[in-house]
From TrEMBL:
A Pfam family matched in the record: Glyco_hydro_16
Superkingdom of origin organism: Bacteria
Similarity annotation: Belongs to the glycosyl hydrolase 16 family.
UniProt-listed InterPro entries: Beta-glucanase-like, ConA-like_dom_sf, Glycosyl_Hydrlase_16, Ig-like_fold, PKD/Chitinase_dom, PKD_dom, PKD_dom_sf
Gene3D superfamilies, alphabetized: 2.60.120.200, Immunoglobulins
Occurrences of domain GH16 (ranges): 92-340
Name of the molecule in the record: Family 16 glycosylhydrolase
UniProt organism field: Sphingobacterium tenebrionis
Length: 340
């Protein structure tokens, strides 16, 4: 009997020691801090350091759908795109209790010219940058357009420092007009940036010059799911009216998200048509003056690679009725530049 009581006392002591400090409230993380330091001004590389009492691990969400887990709470990350981000640090205890803290981060990076064609070399297009698309597409490129696109020098050529896309009234491959449509697809595809097109558009009812971006995933995400950004559109039936338009699911074709601006010298002078495109917004400008701002978000198809298209159509749903007296028209482009 004496030995039995000693054993019970001993076991009781072990159980008491094992439960020491098991209060759940005492295991919760507390006093979470988040320090953010830019490694080098303008680099976009930041060091994130989270600290908390009773924390076993940390998760840093960088505010752009990217995150990293760390046992020390210290991580380094480089943002690919300048902008505003909400950074969230989450501390987790051994028993799974978490606390979080957020900080706002904003940085700007000096813009760099990442791609351009200045059209300074006379002759044909640079095949390392552009590809001609040939034909009339399906149902006139989906718009009942009347032209047949060719890669002939008669329809696209460089002279006197500008690219000329020339519409010609002629019988060709069963169509009454020829023109050109050139793309950077597979040669330059990009996500976000500022695109500038310095151009002069032609006069003529039915003409439809354009400079635009199309989602590079258009073969798997059928238009409008791939997204379309029309930097410049001008139709001869609306002389000197410039259209800046976005096409995406539920807002495409006649129901697209669009705005216009009047430009009295669109057909006589060169102007810079541009779009500033980032994860938060798409801003359309003429000569640096904004006339259309679209607030973007992850639900819209404007967060993947796009490519550049330059073309001039004739007629179609948007181009409208054609003036039969037009024998030719020239859409002239001084340069295309992309900054990031």
């Amino acid at each position: 009997m004496y030995r039995f009581w000693i054993l019970i006392i001993a076991l009781s002591g072990v159980i008491s020691c094992s439960n020491k400090g098991s209060d759940p409230a005492g295991d919760a993380p507390s006093n979470l801090t988040l320090q953010i330091t830019e490694k080098e001004a303008g680099s976009g590389t930041y060091i994130f350091e989270a600290k908390a009492d009773n924390a076993l691990s940390y998760e840093i969400n960088f505010g752009n759908n990217q995150k990293e887990v760390s046992k020390t709470g210290k991580v380094e990350y480089t943002y690919p795109i300048a902008g505003k981000y909400t950074v969230t640090a989450t501390a987790r205890s051994a028993n799974g209790i978490t606390i979080s803290k957020t900080e706002e981060l904003e940085f700007s990076r000096p813009e760099k010219l990442v791609w351009a064609d200045e059209f300074n070399v006379p002759g044909g297009l640079d095949s390392k940058k552009w590809t001609h698309e040939i034909g009339n597409g399906e149902n006139g490129w989906g718009n009942a357009e009347k032209q047949y696109y060719t890669d002939r020098s008669a329809n696209s050529y460089i002279s006197d420092g500008t690219l000329k896309i020339k519409l010609i009234k002629e019988n060709y491959e069963g169509f009454g007009y020829t023109s050109a449509r050139i793309v950077t697809r597979g040669k330059f595809d990009f996500t976000y940036g500022r695109v500038e097109i310095r151009a002069k558009v032609p006069v003529g009812k039915g003409t439809w010059p354009a400079g635009w971006l199309l989602g590079s995933n258009y073969q798997t995400k059928i238009w409008p799911a791939c997204g379309e950004i029309d930097i410049l559109e001008h139709v001869g039936k609306q002389l000197n009216t410039i259209h800046g338009t976005l096409h995406y699911p539920e807002h495409h074709g006649e129901n697209a998200t669009t705005k216009t601006t009047e430009l009295a010298t669109a057909t006589t002078n060169f102007h810079v048509y541009s779009v500033d495109w980032n994860k938060d917004e798409i801003i359309f400008k003429v000569d640096g003056k904004a006339y259309h701002t679209f607030k973007s978000s992850p639900q819209y198809p404007f967060h993947h690679d796009f490519f550049i298209i330059l073309n001039m159509a004739m007629g179609g749903y948007f181009g409208g009725d054609v003036d039969p007296s037009i024998n030719e028209a020239i859409y002239e482009i001084d340069y295309v530049r992309v900054y990031q």
